[in-house]
């Protein structure tokens, strides 16, 4: 696939690149209005509509059978997507994000502060994606959490084998009974536009859409209005026995536990990030993000094991 060429900043300094006709001749010393003849190319409104809808519906068609679905585009889901998409450009990876804006809880470092803290050795992931950091003793600092999230997101979205369906909620899981074990395996996701999902109470029968995939990575975050979706659903259908419930904050315990615990919790579903704390009864870590990045890497590795076999 052809990667788009980066836009060179200096191109914007020369309006002649944009303006069709040369700027009018002027007397010496007179200021030239370089934008006087500026004009965009012609377009018809229907062309814009078709350019968007054609691609979206082609993507819905293409990703109806995905190789991997990632639920949630927070720091963990995006780290998983990056690792997978880079390792296996042949896999079709669909990311389903309920929010209009992907990124989850990683636009700020903590409270409303900008700096993002990652404990070592998570700086290796920052190096991998090219995010600069300030080095401290046992940890590193990215000057703004949004720099991490936007850089990671731009890399993920540039991979030709990734499609982000944002403003789209996973409302349910597709499951199958494994004939060998009699147990449930996850075989895909049931989706709806988030704005539709929010109105099941006052509009009837707005049936969803589906995506089949042999393996899912769920990273929907800790419990809340949207969070911990997949594991709560697995509990309600008796595919797991209980939820441990996220425990109080302990940075030291929490980060190791989340990374180490990242795994396939039922066949066909890997759980990572803070969603996992609800399964395992792990602590929260609060404003340190190394575990989210490395849990994403480990979740991707669990999927790679399946595909590299
Ligand atoms: O919108 C959610 C968010 O962007 C999305 N999501 C949740 N349920 C979904 C569903 N369908 C589609 N049913 C859904 N998308 O999942 C994303 C989760 O991102 P996050 O940043 O909340 O989770 P994370 O595990 O990647 O990172 C958590 C970081 C921490 S730690 C912590 C603490 O210790 O208090 N708090 C946060 C936010």
Task: Outline the structure in words.
The protein is α/β, with parallel strands linked by helices and 309 residues long. Helices cover 33% and strands 21% of the residues. The strands form four sheets. A six-stranded mixed β-sheet has the order 6-2-1-10-13-12, with helices on both faces. Strands 3-5-4 form a three-stranded antiparallel β-sheet. The longest helix is centred in the N-terminal third of the chain and has 19 residues, at 45-63. The site of ligand AHZ has 29 residues, from helix 2, strand 2 and strand 7. Its cofactor is Fe cation. It is an enzyme of class 2 (transferase). Its main location: cytoplasm. Substrate binds at residues 76, 97-98, 105, 170, 207, 222, 274, 284-286.
Low-pLDDT runs: none
| Rg, Å, rounded | 23 Å
Q: Would you list the SSEs in sequence order as H and E?
A: HEHEEHEEHEEEHEEHEHEEHEH
Q: Which strands sit side by side, in order, in the main sheet? A: 6-2-1-10-13-12
**Fraction of residues in H or I helices:** 25-40%
Distance between the termini: 25 Å
* Outline type: globular
Number of strands: 14
| Structural class computed from helices and strand pairing | alpha/beta
How much β-strand is present in the residues?
Answer: 15-25%
- Bound molecule kinds, no repeats: ligand AHZ
Number of contiguous helices: 9
Major sheet = 6 strands, mixed
The average pLDDT score comes to: 93
Organism: Morchella conica CCBAS932
Keywords: Cytoplasm, Iron, Metal-binding, NAD, Nucleus, Thiamine biosynthesis, Transferase
EC number: 2.4.2.60
Family: Belongs to the THI4 family.
